[in-house]
Design a protein that fits this description.
The protein has about 160 residues and is an alpha/beta fold. The chain is about 30% helix and about 20% strand.
Length: about 160
């Protein structure tokens, strides 16, 4: 099962790209998760993504995807959410961050000892790389929405494909 974290101000492209890729894999369930179930306004044009699960009710997704967006700024101070990300990472097969969502992984301690990439404006705050995709063990990070498809394809290939 794949958990894609949504929040008010989430980048729709960064959440929907992996949802499309993972959703095309047979027997893989994709869920949008948030503090509360229900609609969450996306960044930019008026749009809504609906969380069908709350983080409190789902502590152990197989794959966790954390997209970015303008809403990330306030979430870096959300201790309960950061604790959930850290706990989910401990048991996940994959933990992934996209763009500014990578900073939530860092704040939760997921990036300790990892190379990572993320939004170009914040690269100086990240350990390591300046590439579109960086994989460090079971942690995968992407620089932005255009890399979100590739991130999901990499995880699918390593999990189900010949590269697994």
């Amino acid at each position: 099962d794949v958990a894609i974290l949504v929040h008010d101000g989430v980048s729709a492209a960064e959440a929907l790209a992996p949802a499309e890729v993972f959703g095309a894999v047979p027997d893989v369930a994709v869920h949008f998760v948030a503090h509360r179930t229900g609609p969450h306004a996306t960044q930019g044009r008026p749009g809504v993504l609906v969380a069908d699960r709350s983080v409190a009710d789902w502590p152990d997704p197989d794959t966790l995807v954390v997209p970015g967006g303008l809403g990330v700024r306030r979430l870096v101070e959300d201790d309960a959410l950061l604790a959930w990300i850290a706990d989910a990472h401990r048991t996940s097969q994959w933990t992934a961050g996209i763009s500014t969502g990578v900073h939530l992984l860092g704040a939760a301690g997921v990036l300790d000892g990892c190379d990572a990439t993320g939004h170009w404006l914040l690269l100086d705050e990240l350990p390591g790389e300046r590439r579109a995709i960086v994989r460090h063990g079971r942690v995968v990070t992407a620089s932005g929405a255009t890399s979100a498809f590739d991130l999901a394809l990499l995880v699918v290939d390593r999990t189900f494909g010949a590269g697994g």
